[in-house]
Amino acid sequence: MSSPARALARLCLLLCPALFATGAEAPPDAVFVGGKVLAVDAGFAIHEALAIRGGRVVAAGSAAQIRALVAPGRTTVHELGGRMLLPGLIDSHVHAPAAAVFEADHEVPDMETIADVLAYIRARAQVVPAGEWIQTSQVFITRLRESRYPTRAELDTAAPRHPVNFRTGPDNMLNSLALARCGFTREFKVTDGGPGHLELDAAGEPNGLARGLGRYIKTPSARAVPRAEQQSRLQALFRDYNRIGFTTVADRGASPSSIRDYEELRDRAGLTVRVALSQTFPTVGPMASILTAIDQIAASPLRGEHPWLRLLGTKIWLDGGMLTGSAYMLQPWGRNEAYGIRDDTYRGVLNVPPDRLREMVRRVAGHGMQFTAHAVGDAAGTTLLEAYAAVDREVPLKPLRMGITHSNFMTREGVLEAARLGVVLDIQPIWLYLDTRTLVGQFGYERLRYFQPLRSIFEAGGVAGGGSDHMLKIGDLRAINPYNPFLAMWTTVTRRARWHEGRLHPEEALTRRQAIEFYTRNNAYLLRWEAEIGSLEPGKRADFIIVDRDLLQCPDDDLRATRVLETWVDGRRVHGPAGG
To answer: Across the strands, what pairs with 568?
Structure first.
């Protein structure tokens, strides 16, 4: 159906729903009646019933209006029994292919203490041949009770005959064998023009902490997972996304190999979530080769109006991480032995100089694509906004919805500038839930005034959407990072965090309506997919969920325990009774 025809159909359905009953239109395939249907449209309309046909919404209204559309023997009637139905949820930030295969060779336990980390490394040393690498992935020190890295000496003791890499985001803590294997000595210098440095101890020797130097750490690739198993695991992950309510996700770090994973699953009709892609490209090396890489991304056939898999734009990593002590900040981090910070002037790591950043943004904008960057610290966000403002004077950027990924630390000025430029923000509430305790200890409560300032963003007219940054493991609460959207909604509404008393700047809390929009309507806008998904309006895709409680009225602490009873994508049930 063309866009004008779809618009006319929407108008007719809104004004004359009885057209179905008279036979002027085919009857709906299914109706859902007797519940609380949240349209999540501009007016946040609440209906009693919904009708779908051919994978799209055809009408929403009172139970009587929708029952009148039913054609016996041709329309399936689903009784909601008072339950809530709302648009399918959207996660604005996942890394699904890597997450799906992470535990292909062995299950990785949860680690909440340094003792847990060392026990895991000792256990791996019993099965990994001496001399081969042992590596942890994304065990963030903010989430360890000690809030620190394991020391070089502790890693040496746990695995004296193995090089060990405690890998956490952009930073790595290495044992002595690993330092030697990488050539990291007191004389080491970065020679490729890229970011990073070694932290030194009081004697001027590497203490094991390597910041932003992952490209120099040549660990072997993980065990090759057979293609069929990769596909099976990715499909199992998507089923788990469906189970928790997701009907669309965005891969904010897609590589050519992961894109092939998605394409193969799509070609086998195996996708049960829609996927938007932000493809990565190298940011170190000659600028000419970087710009050529951007041009190649722009030539992708996935840039069209594909209903299941589409290329949104590009993504780079602009700074380090707040979970590892390397986010690029406007003010110095402050000394902290746990983070390995001994320099009073240290502000974190900026991976791309501003002049090169502007060239990258300009090239992506020239192709009409969205540019986004991992930007955690307030200085990183400011640097990115300055690049956007400079390019906006040449090419209007608002239609392209340039992004800031994470955007944890902001300033009042940054909130307003993002709204002015039409820059959209991809934010992960789970970081507030899991990491507030350590961040308050490092920075103090007041310096976190504009940490994930969601209410301020909404009030300024900006658009932010919710993501998980799901990296590793399958399981909505055991994953790194957990991708349960109702825990995330609860966090945005309460501003409460694990292992932390009180609330983190409750003035930035969202309302229930805003929390729902954060994972539906707003994310559809972030992904430039709002014409098709994100709300339940006539003509849009029939992507929706049915939940076991009223998200607008239940007690705050019940919100995080929400269960999804059914998930529908394109008018097909993919989770729930008789579902997949």
So the answer is: 544, 573
